[in-house]
């Protein structure tokens, strides 16, 4: 029979599980809640930006820096793991700073834990925008992630990208390997897979977990749960020579078939109207002359 677990052993196992959950929760933490990606307003130019060691616009140093790992602005630990000891004194400002992160361009406090772990676990290590391909050092805004394809986005392109992210590269929603309906869609590769081709041979899948994409290993989703649309073709009015068209040209670049408005002007319309009036007057005069001749003939007959 196995030995009965003591209270100390049960407590140690619970503590081990709790520490594992804390570490996994830190990795699953949303990107906007990390201290290195917090919002900061410059004291000199009053511009909002990401948490930085120096202002992106005016290069000014902030009076109250924030640690990129723990998020504190004041070190109050008297007997902690601080590299620079300050017994009985609270460290603020640059006295709390220990380094600058090479990835997120933010201050790191002088705590030994922050200095040794932040560079390895910085969430902005590969934070290049998928649209403009700019890194953290190339733009002043915060960094976000697309809720569909889980790619990095800068503050300028986040809304436009997410509004047009749910589309497929193919012209149908069929599996790229066969002609059957694609039940699973990868929002990163923009392709669909059927139930047979989404799984790879020799790969162990977890139960009740999303199936990873066979191309990029990103979690796939069922197509029926998404508002996926296929690739669109933009059609428009073009000229035959490939040059820029103007509003003077008619439909499809042909001015002769645009309702006839380009071939006539106001002067021509006035001339036509005047000529029509003259013809009407001539016809009325001829009718009056014919009526007068008929009346004279009838009077002559009565006299005779």
UniProtKB/TrEMBL annotation:
Gene Ontology cellular component terms for the protein in this record: nucleolus
Record localization: Nucleus, Nucleolus
Region (Disordered): 1-24, 256-304
Organism: Trichonephila inaurata madagascariensis
Sequence ranges of Basic and acidic residues compositional bias: 14-24, 294-304
InterPro entries for this protein: NOA36
The protein's name: Zinc finger protein 330 homolog
Bias (Acidic residues): 265-293
Family: Belongs to the NOA36 family.
Compositional bias (Basic residues): 1-13
UniProt keywords, alphabetically: Metal-binding, Nucleus, Repeat, Zinc, Zinc-finger
Signal peptide start-end: none
Gene Ontology molecular function: any one: zinc ion binding
